[in-house]
Design goal:
The protein is mostly helical. It is built from 6 helices and 2 strands; from the N terminus they run ββαααααα.
Length: 118
């Protein structure tokens, strides 16, 4: 297993799929990283040379991924809550933030928010 950005990447997966194991890298970012490094999207991770893996690590370091991304998202939500703006109040109450209906739906977020309050 290759370790990139603190995440164990499975060896038997294709490059574009394996990069998606890193929080903050989706399909489009993974494709862009493969294009920048001139690595085929279909080649498996265990077939890459150490030089190519180091190149991947260096490119991914430039992105905000894993802990840094999670921390910035949490700080952004905390800032909204501290401002007492509408979105902050919705976060605080555990209700949908982006205008979704709450009469019949939004039960999932209400259930999940019990765990976020801790």
């Amino acid at each position: 297993m290759v370790r990139i950005a603190g995440v164990n990447i499975p060896d038997n997966k294709r490059t574009i799929i394996a990069l998606k194991y890193i929080y903050g890298i989706g399909k489009s970012h993974a494709a862009r990283i493969c294009k920048i490094t001139n690595i085929s999207q279909n080649i498996k991770i265990n077939q890459l040379t150490e030089k190519k893996i180091d190149l991947l690590r260096n490119i991914i370091l430039k992105f905000k991924v894993e802990g840094d991304l999670r921390r910035s998202i949490n700080l952004h939500i905390k800032r909204l809550v501290d401002l007492n703006c509408y979105r902050g109040l919705r976060h605080k109450k555990g209700l949908p933030v982006r205008g979704q209906r709450t009469k019949t739906n939004a039960h999932t977020i209400k259930k999940l928010y019990k765990y976020f309050k801790k």
